[in-house]
Design goal:
By secondary structure, the protein is of the alpha+beta class. 14% of the residues lie in helices and 28% in strands.
């Protein structure tokens, strides 16, 4: 009797080329999936809301382990996909099995001023469809207030706990620019203004009018040009409330440049339930506190058929804004980011493509491997 539990090289059957390819591909998919889930993942930036810190066409490496890797709640999913299978409208996952999601300890916490990738919470920002948290659309913004902070925006300036928040170096605001004639494409390129950075408004009083999104450096450069007649700030401070501001209520008659004060919910923070607190926090409690039976009726918070007179938050929340302050759909318009929606910390730009440039200038070589701050 042969008690050997292995076979020698000569006794092994030769592996076919097809089986060898299958094994290699399977190993690569499993390895890539594990790396993507646990350590780093690549993302591309499709919108200008973080310009000029991050540009459209920047490809980012995002660390999952900085803030802690999350376990998946959808094990029945096509590997290396997000909401849909590549190039189709077919969902990439099945909701037959949904598991609780947990976060492993990270090496740091989300800090005020961090650039953060997160799953945007509202259904309206996810093509109107409800998805598991990890499969909601990915956004990248700057965290301007952490859990427990008191946030207020006064004439475009952000104040947190009474102190002004420093401006990111490449932050943009909107300006009304009057020129003596149309600005040439060559000048706009020299000023590093892309198609999303300026809008032709027409002619008025023998002047050509533009609405432009400019950094401080671009503002100084364009103001010094001899054919520029004037540059004036555009803001919403004195223009009254915006209809789509968060939270939308009689107690928050705010806009993007005049906002708050508003306290960001913190785990363990208790609030008394009344008309005002429900207006500020009611939807957050209802949608993101993982309560099975909750409703808001006649200015009352009802949980498990009981009217609550106070509520204690079960997780931390964050307030995110884009550096392109007048061209960013962020927490001012859709609300707080729950802690369980945090994805990771962008580390650096590994590739940057200018989609509007010619083929010879398509790659922004100077941006490659630059750190994100």
């Amino acid at each position: 009797m042969d008690f050997r539990f292995w076979k020698t090289q000569k006794e092994r059957k030769p592996v076919s080329a097809a089986r060898d390819w299958f094994n290699s591909i399977l190993f690569a998919v499993v390895a890539a999936t594990l790396i993507r889930w646990t350590t780093v993942e690549a993302y591309v930036v499709p919108t200008p809301s973080m310009e000029n810190t991050i540009l459209v066409g920047d490809y980012l490496f995002v660390s999952k382990f900085h803030y802690g890797t999350r376990t998946t709640s959808t094990p029945l999913q096509v590997p290396l996909t997000h909401q849909k299978i590549w190039g189709t409208n077919i969902p990439s996952y099945l909701d037959w099995v949904e598991l609780p999601s947990y976060r492993f300890p990270g090496i740091s916490e989300v800090k005020r001023g961090d650039v953060v990738v997160f799953n945007v919470p509202p259904v309206s920002m996810n093509e109107g469809q409800e998805h598991p948290i990890q499969l909601k659309s990915n956004y990248v913004k700057r965290c301007v207030a952490v859990a427990g902070d008191r946030l207020q925006i006064v004439d475009k300036e952000i104040f947190v706990n009474g102190s002004a928040l420093p401006h990111p170096e490449n932050m943009k605001f909107r300006y009304l620019v009057a020129a003596k004639d149309e600005i040439t494409p060559r000048t706009l390129t020299r000023l590093e203004l892309g198609n999303d950075d300026y809008y032709f408004l027409g002619r008025s009083d023998n002047k050509v009018m533009y609405s432009m999104l400019l950094t401080n450096k671009q503002l100084k450069e364009i103001s010094s040009l001899p054919f520029i007649s004037s540059v004036a700030k555009e803001d919403k401070t004195n223009k009254g409330p915006e209809n789509d501001i968060f939270p939308s209520s009689e107690y928050s008659l705010w806009n993007g440049d005049a906002y708050g004060p508003l306290v960001i919910p913190k785990k363990g923070m208790s609030i008394e339930i009344n008309d005002t607190t429900l207006a500020y926090y009611g939807e957050t409690i209802k949608l993101y506190e993982h309560l099975d039976n909750v409703s808001i009726e006649n200015n009352k918070l009802i949980i498990d058929s009981k009217v609550r007179t106070n509520y204690t938050f079960s997780q931390d929340y964050y307030f995110m804004m884009g550096d392109n302050r007048h061209n960013s759909l962020d927490s001012r318009y859709w609300g707080f980011v729950p802690g369980d929606h945090i994805v990771g910390k962008p580390l650096f730009i590994w590739l940057s493509l200018d989609y509007d440039a010619g083929i010879m200038d398509k790659v922004r070589w100077k941006r490659m491997f630059t750190k994100i701050e």
